[in-house]
From TrEMBL:
GO terms for molecular function: phosphoric diester hydrolase activity. The lineage of its organism: Bacteria, Pseudomonadati, Thermodesulfobacteriota, Desulfarculia, Desulfarculales. This is Glycerophosphoryl diester phosphodiesterase. SUPFAM superfamilies: PLC-like phosphodiesterases. It comes from Desulfarculus baarsii (strain ATCC 33931 / DSM 2075 / LMG 7858 / VKM B-1802 / 2st14). It holds the Pfam family GDPD. GO terms for biological process: lipid metabolic process.
């Protein structure tokens, strides 16, 4: 049972640049998103969190050490402090000018050129702030930039998705989880919130899962870490997945174009 032939105007299977193009550029930077689009990505994926002064910043970890030259929690730094950090030098000294982007900056540069999956990090709901703050601000930014039809909001926090749905009944949502939860019908869970897709770790791909999602009109979109092999990606597509959050968008594009 095949899935939807297209999604938000792009034919499936979708090439999704996972945090941009982390195979060749530092993740979640402007350089990384630019590279993913240049390599044929249909969509870019990014992670959003809040700075100490409630600004939306694009960065994956709750702490700064792995992907910047800063230290400590993202949420303990103001936007000005975060913008002073080097988010590229750890990957390549020639990219030391890369800063952690704001969500607005990414939307303004790429919103008209590609689809964007905004993952609201669950950590951003655990600040000493009402949990809906990061959700409200993200949705306001999507609306301000006129990107309601070309963005998807996902989160490991089902509460975040419930809040997003309560704020905007038309928003494209995706449920994000490692995999199906025991005793819960994943397709029904997605439908209950009006989601368009289920995003899950590649280790959970089965034909039963993709077919039950397709019967419900949903996309099956796996992600993986950098160690995923081309054969594992090809197998996921064979099992009916409708795209892939790829660290190497060019490799996935080449694989899909050969099919
Ligand atoms: O949205 C899919 C994927 O990005 C989730 O994993 O750890 O890369 O945010 P992670
Ligand atoms: Ca992510």
């Amino acid at each position: 049972l095949a899935g939807p032939a297209d999604f938000l105007g792009r034919p499936t299977p979708l090439v999704i640049g996972h945090r941009g193009c982390p195979a060749r550029r530092p993740e979640n930077t402007m350089a990384s998103f630019e590279q993913a689009i240049a390599e044929g990505a249909d969509m870019i994926e990014l992670d959003v969190q809040l700075s100490a002064d409630c600004q939306l910043v694009v960065i994956h970890d709750a702490t700064l050490e792995r992907t910047t030259n800063g230290h400590g929690l993202v949420a303990m730094h103001t936007l000005e402090q975060l913008r002073g950090l080097d988010a590229g030098g750890w990957f390549d000294p020639r990219l030391a000018d890369q800063r952690p982007p704001t969500l607005a900056e990414v939307f303004e540069a790429f919103g008209q050129r590609t689809l964007i999956n905004v993952e609201i990090k669950a950590e951003a709901l655990c600040l000493p702030l009402p949990g809906w703050t990061v959700v409200e601000l993200t949705l306001a930014e999507i609306a301000r930039c006129g990107l309601e039809r070309t963005t998807v909001v996902s989160s490991m926090s089902f509460d975040a998705l419930l809040m997003a749905r309560a704020i905007n009944p038309r928003l494209n949502l995706a449920v994000l989880a490692h995999g199906p939860k025991p005793g819960i019908d994943t397709a029904m869970l997605c439908q209950a919130i009006g989601a368009r897709a289920f995003n899950f770790h590649i280790s959970s791909v089965t034909r039963d899962l993709t077919e039950s999602l397709h019967r419900a009109g949903l996309l099956a979109l796996p992600y993986a870490d950098a160690s995923v092999t081309p054969s594992a990606m090809a197998r996921a597509l064979e099992l009916g997945c409708d795209g892939f959050f790829a660290d190497d968008p060019a490799a996935l594009r080449a694989m899909i174009d050969k099919q």
